[in-house]
Amino acid sequence: MPPRTQTRRIRQGMRAMTLWKTSVLSIALFALLASGSLVKAARGQEPGWGRDASMVAAGVIDRVANLLSLNRPLDAANSALGREDVEPEIKFPPVTIAPATPQTTTTIPGRAVSPGSPLRMRVFGDSVADSLAVSLKNTAARDPLVSVTNDGRVSTGLARPDYYNWPEHLVKDVLPSDPQVMVIMFGANDGQGMTGTDGKVYTRGTPEWLDEYRRRVAATMDLLKDPANDRLVIWVGAPVMRPGSGVHEMDQLDYIYWTEAQKRPWIQYFDSWPFFSDANLQYVKEAPFADGVSRGLRQKDGVHLSTIGGNRLSWAVLGRIGKYVDLSAGKVAPPADEAPAAGIVERTEIPPGVPGAE
Question: What CATH number does the domain containing 195 carry?
Fold first, then answer.
């Protein structure tokens, strides 16, 4: 008869083995039940060997799940909730990149707004745009002349329509609602490989990659034009990102946004860079506000905006919108602890950026 201590160790070992086997079986069962989600997650990875391997593994799991019909309950639930993973019907339309021409006028007419007929504003883009939208909604709650809808989507952009198709969403879901003002912001997730129309994967930052990204920006801007010339689109450039944050090419993307906006009177480019940088346009973690107090502008990742950083940007964007729409009747002034310090202005020209820089 083995000693009591040895018996206890054997039982503990058996329990540990049982727990390990149960965990493995649970993970395998979950993978089979949610195989469609695994495929979608693998598809959303950046192009490369890692994505290819994930797609192969997820594809095998999905085929086994389909064979055993294990994924049907979750697929049925997603279908009932309108979450079906279907191929996109609307892609970036073809567009010819015109040479840059200075924009001297805007065709957007002045609007009369009132508490009974507030300005309908819709904010969309990536998670940085979502932070801006949250701040704009909080500001709009104090202003009877502005109504804001948040249409931000985390981890999205223009680089991966196979993961989230912005042209399709714009055409099907956004434009039919006829927003009067659209605020758009992309870039934080777009510094990754892209697949061109020829099926070739372009490495981020290369001339081919920049040309393809420009084509997508131009096509998106064209989609936003109102037939009656009665819509204002504020395209917010990405702010400077912290060196080492892993977010790349923001200066080059901002140059693309700015130059393409110059060709389209219905697009007004807003330069967010100076509001989140020092006098030398370098990244800063905190900066002075109108009351003279320095406050943190960014979250720990050096990419996303803090709450006060979002407020800072929202007041600046509203100030730009106020140049085209008379919002003075709302009598809402930015608090000194939320407004940017005096003297911060947008740049008159956006430089082309430095290839290979973050």
Answer: 3.40.50.1110
- Residue 36, in any domain of the structure: yes
Is 114 a member of any domain?
A: no
Same domain? For 29 and 170 the reply is no
Residue 159 lies inside a defined structural domain of this protein: yes
For residue 101, give both structure tokens. Answer: 């021409």
Please give the residue range of the domain that contains residue 184.
119-330
pLDDT (tens place) for every residue of the chain, 358 residues total = 556 565 555 555 556 566 656 655 555 555 445 555 554 555 445 444 454 455 456 545 655 555 555 545 555 555 454 444 444 444 565 544 444 444 444 445 556 788 888 899 999 999 999 999 999 999 888 888 899 999 999 999 999 988 899 999 999 999 998 899 999 999 999 999 998 888 888 999 999 999 999 999 999 999 999 888 889 999 999 999 999 999 988 999 999 999 999 999 999 999 999 999 999 999 999 999 999 999 999 999 999 999 999 999 999 999 999 998 888 888 788 999 999 999 999 999 999 987 765 5
98 in any annotated domain: no
Work out the end-to-end distance of the chain between its first and last CA atoms, rounded to an integer number of angstroms: 68
Same domain flag for 76 and 174: no
Same domain membership, residue 70 and residue 123: no
